[in-house]
Each structure stands twice: as structure tokens, then as C-alpha cells.
Amino acid sequence: MIPHFSDLSANERTYLAWIRTAVSLMGFGFLIERFDVFLIYTTRGSVLNSGLHLRASEWLGLGMILLGAALILLATRSFYRNSRLIQAEAAAAYRGTMVERVLTALLVALALFLVLYVGYQLTSLH
């Protein structure tokens, strides 16, 4: 029997959830990065002369891809740290809310930017 198996497997499930979140973030970043292609296709090329800021979607998408990669690194570090703490006999205080708070703030800022950006792009098309 593996000591602390339920805690170790819960740690692994949490790690895999963070990895799924990071991969989703990276995929959504790729989709945002290609948003200009969607705009050009749906407007049959007339978007090129409308003065839209298509570069913003490229930078935003790249930023989301980089954020997803950073999230994978942070999740991996947290997974190994928590594994060591679970297997240690000494009691330790739980730490780890700062990363979640920073990521939450970044994702809220990203969502607000997307709402403003897409809203601006849609109003510029009419």
C-alpha cells in the first residue's frame, strides 16, 4: 500500500486540471491570434481598408499562449512541492494562493480587454 495515496492522487488530479486549463488557454490564444483571418474572411476582404487594429489580436493571442506555457511551469512546480510536503512527516502550512490570485487577475483583465476589443471591432465594421 502506498502511504498517503489519496492525497497524492488528489495532488495529481489537481495538477492535471491545471494542465488542461493551460492547454485550453493556449488553444484559445491561438484562436484569438487568428481572429484577423476570421474578420477578413467574413467581410470578404473589406476589413483591410476599415482601419481595424488587427495587430492587437496577434499580440493578445501570443500573450495567452505564453501565459499558458507559464501556467504549465507553475503547475509543475506546485505539483512537485505538494508531493514532497505530502510525503514529509513534518506538518507544514499551506501556501499557494498568490499564484491563483495573479492568474485570476490576469484572466479578468484579459476578459475585459476581449470584450472591449471585440466590441470595438464589431462597431467598426458597421
From TrEMBL:
Q: Where are the transmembrane segments?
A: 21-41, 61-80, 101-120
Keywords from the named record: Membrane, Transmembrane, Transmembrane helix
Which residue numbers delimit the DUF202 domain? 9-84
Q: Which compartments does it reside in? A: Endomembrane system
Give the chief site where it resides: membrane
- Give the membrane topology, semicolon-separated if more than one: Multi-pass membrane protein
**Pfam families with a match to the protein in the record:** DUF202
This protein is called what?
DUF202 domain-containing protein
**What is the species of this protein?**
Dyella agri
